[in-house]
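From the pipeline queue, job 12 of 40. The input is one protein chain; the requested action is below.

Action: predict structure.
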Amino acid sequence: MSTLDLLKRYTKVVADTGDFQAMKKYAPQDATTNPSLILKASAQEEYQDLIRKAIHDGRNTEDRLDRLAVAFGLEILNIIPGRVSTEVNARLSFDTKATVEKARRLIDLYREAGIPRERILIKIATTWEGIRAAEILEKEGIHCNMTLLFSLVQAAACAEAKATLISPFVGRILDWYKAARGVDHIPAPEDPGVLSVKSIYYYYKKRGIETEVMGASFRNTGEILELAGCDLLTISPELLEQLSTMDADLAPKLRVEDARDLSPPDVDTTEVSFRWLLNEDAMATEKLAQGIRVFAADLAKLEEKVKKLESQL
């Protein structure tokens, strides 16, 4: 039995990719996408029919981009048994109203294709405005995956909003601390990204919070193994391949029962406190802003590709 097989005993494994073949190979329960992954996949010949159909069916560039995101989601749902995450335009990260409207539009497109909202997670950046949007959407039965999450205060605020799932980013936290410390390596048990997810996991479990914790953005298998037992882990095809060829013994590192003896601090999630605590965390502030910029930039590249194809209609 491979290490990946063992990991699936303790944690729901999610594929972090737009590659359909990788999903078929590693049989994840759920899958996540983002503009960067769709942009990468869109360069491959096997996905050109999806792109052409989205362009043909769409009313304008924005509508075509929405349809393209949903088209990838629909193909993924034909492969996996669980849920797919589809991301709201990163440019809307500071606009609650526009985020809510975009999420509703994406859900409508899935509904038109016969997919119930229970199989969809709407990915929203974990800004204050994004969290408020999730609070509205969850009350409507639209489930949210809060992405670009780097701190406990973000996680606590998402729990208050009753978000379905959060995606704390492990590898990007590691990147920041390696640069800040001027080192090339930090052992997995001491990895700041791993420790961040552990603190969030136990904060939730101690309080009986139902929001799911899904570790994301991994740089190596060591980080993944240190988080065995987490609710979910979303993993790239490259790391899934490494895990599938490993035969190391694996026991859960995170266990709900271990939260009983812990006393994690309370976190004030009012708006003033949220903004202050996030501001005081240089890593979280910088990585959140950078992540939004990167997703927005890749969406702009995808938008230019769609516009070029539009001109050929």
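Job complete. The two ends are 51 Å apart (CA to CA).
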